[in-house]
Amino acid sequence: MSTWWLRGAACLAAASTLVGCFSNRQNEGGKLYATHCASCHGEQGEGLRRLIPPLAGADYLRQQRAALPCLIRKGQQGPVVVNGVTYNQVMPGHEDLTDSQITNILNFVQQQWGNQNQTYTIREVSELLDACHGSDGQ
Amino acid sequence: MIRFALRRALGPLLFGLGSLALLPACSSSSADQQTARLPYIGERDVVPSPTGGPADTVYATIPTFRLTNQAGQPVTNDTFKDKIYITDFFFATCPSICPKMQSELLRVYEKYKDNPRVVFLSHTIDPAHDSIPVLRDYAERLGVTDASRWHFATAPQDTIFALAHAYLTGAQVSTDAPGGLEHTGAFALVDPNRHVRGIYDGLNKDEVDRLIQEIPVLLQEVSATPATATAPRP
């Protein structure tokens, strides 16, 4: 019995239980956010007082859209102004995430908690990451 | 750069403790049988009574300390005389578990900030970086304006480490992160007799809710029994 037939059968079986063949990336942005971002920026993107900036309703996400992929990849230090408030806290970088994972996190954040900002393609994120030599092409 | 990792060694043991457990060793036969009491947490010693009566159980106490807070004021054991306090360990630039811990502790603070008998104490484990101005800025950014209600305190690092051990939060040099540190995100609830009466996982909302519920239980006990220099005897 050839293996392609088996694979096809397995896929069909999986699909029939509503777990599609390509669904393991579903909601990846939200899951990655919970793992890598929520402990500082809050589960609802609320930030922490004047210590850590919010993401929900943050003007920075629109104004600095092109800089965000490198901000996640390389982290950030020094003062940053969000919604008119100056924050100054170290944000760690994430060399452990792929370009596509960064894309999913950004798209989650740009569209969550009432945010209605432009999303990204993986290709765009990889191109933006080239600016900080932060693209892994994955 | 200090790294921060969660130590789980203490976790199941301490956080699994029942909230309002009656003391098995000290079930008092007095009139307050109806009142729930918080357990004593930590090392204990059984000391034979000099009078030949029943042996005393003696619980570990927080050692004598002297710290400096964000206002540049000294913080000692006497700062918390006749009060209960909640303590944790953090550092200002910590990007991993500290924000979550401090936002949970802030929740407790908001609940009790108008009660002068409940005080908060956060120790920095990075005294080299967290100078008094840094601690002051951190406190202000958190919205804490009165240093006497919530102390953000510093001391030489070995002092802080020894205290972390006493508060059962196990800060230590991390073997995984050379030059780094690790400890749990635990909160300790301390009574006026220097005893730890509760340990809570500061990263777990349910655990912090339990702390919020147990503070009045300890306050009630403290009101009923004036603080003494020694542990209350069964």
Could you please describe the fold and organization of this structure?
The complex is a heterodimer of chains A (138) and B (234). Chain A has 138 residues and is mainly alpha-helical. Helices cover 44% and strands 4% of the residues of chain A. Chain A has seven helices and two strands. Chain A has helices spanning 3-16, 28-36, 38-41, 59-63, 68-74, 99-111, 122-130; strands at residues 80-82, 85-87. Chain A has a two-stranded antiparallel ribbon with strand order 1-2. In chain A, strand 1 and strand 2 form a beta hairpin. The longest helix of chain A is centred in the N-terminal third of the chain and has 14 residues, at 3-16. Chain A is globular. The relative contact order of chain A is 0.15. Chain B is globular. Chain B has helices at 11-15, 98-112, 132-142, 157-166, 205-224, and strands at 44-47, 56-59, 66-68, 74-76, 84-90, 118-124, 150-153, 172-173, 181-182, 186-190, 196-201. In chain B, the strands form four sheets. Chain B has a five-stranded mixed β-sheet. In chain B, strands 1-2 form a two-stranded antiparallel sheet. A two-stranded antiparallel sheet of chain B has the order 3-4. Residues 5-33 of chain B have low confidence and may be disordered. Chain B has 234 residues and is of the alpha+beta class. Helix content of chain B is 26%, strand content 20%. The A-B interface holds A 39-40, 42, 48-52, 89-92 and B 93, 95-97, 99-100, 102-103, 106, 138, 140-143, 203.
